[in-house]
UniProtKB/TrEMBL annotation:
Organism from which the protein derives: Camellia sinensis (Tea plant)
Protein's UniProt name: Uncharacterized protein
ANK repeat locations: 107-139, 140-172, 178-206
TM region(s), chain numbering: none
Record-linked Gene3D superfamilies: Ankyrin repeat-containing domain (1.25.40.20)
């Protein structure tokens, strides 16, 4: 009798477990760091997929920060050059010691130079607040201010100067100052700003030209007048 009762009890318990197993949905396997390819990180940085980075664990994010692509660029380079401020903010805030704020790619470009060249004010501000070196030069000897001047980005030039950008640094190839580049673009407001902040108006670059000559070549009367008024020669 006792044996029959035990047998019936075990049968009911076995049936109950079987039903629970059928009712509970199967669990999805967790996606580990090994399941994410290096290209996935760079594609997310290039496309501005901030949710991808927000879903990473802190350890995964730290490991990803040291990855470099075929151009020797970090994720921060890619996000900055692709103009994605939210991704730049996530990456730059992860860990200052490994973020690569001032790291160079194979041509010596740092993330700040990419941001200044592309004209993204928000990214420039994020990088500077994360202690980006405002006077860092690339392989051509050009700083972020050189690129802001070349593209005519007045607001970015103002921000860089307010963070201590050296206004009279020469590039390596042509010995050009930011003012030479600004004069070549014909941006009178930018030229005026640089001169007011102490740019050398009569500086001569490798081709023997001064900012005035650059302004004459681009035939911008406003820039010519501004430079002449400020010239000592």
């Amino acid at each position: 009798m006792i044996a029959k009762i035990l047998k019936a009890t075990l049968k009911r318990a076995s049936s109950s477990v079987s039903m629970e197993m059928e009712i509970d949905p199967p669990k999805k396997p967790e996606v580990g760091a090994e399941a994410i390819k290096d290209d996935d990180f760079f594609n997310a940085a290039e496309n501005g997929d901030s949710s991808f980075f927000e879903a990473l664990s802190h350890d995964q994010l730290l490991k990803a920060l040291s990855l470099r692509n075929e151009d020797c660029r970090l994720l921060l380079h890619v996000a900055a050059s692709s103009a994605h401020p939210k991704v730049v903010k996530i990456l730059s805030a992860a860990d200052p010691s490994v973020t690569g704020i001032n790291s160079a790619d194979e041509e010596g470009w740092a993330p700040l130079q990419f941001a200044a060249s592309s004209g993204n004010v928000e990214i420039v501000e994020i990088l500077l607040s994360s202690e980006a070196d405002v006077n860092l030069k690339n392989n051509g000897g050009r700083t972020a201010l050189h690129y802001a001047a070349s593209k005519g980005w007045l607001k970015i030039a103002e921000i860089l100067l307010s963070h201590g950008a050296n206004i009279n640094l020469k590039d390596k190839a042509c010995w050009m100052h930011p003012l030479h580049r600004a004069a070549s673009t014909g941006n009178s407001e930018l030229c005026e700003l640089l001169i007011e902040e102490g740019a050398e108006v009569d500086a001569i670059y490798k081709a023997g030209q001064t900012p005035l000559m650059s302004a004459v070549i681009c035939e911008n009367k406003e820039v010519i007048i501004i430079v002449i008024k400020s010239s000592k020669t």
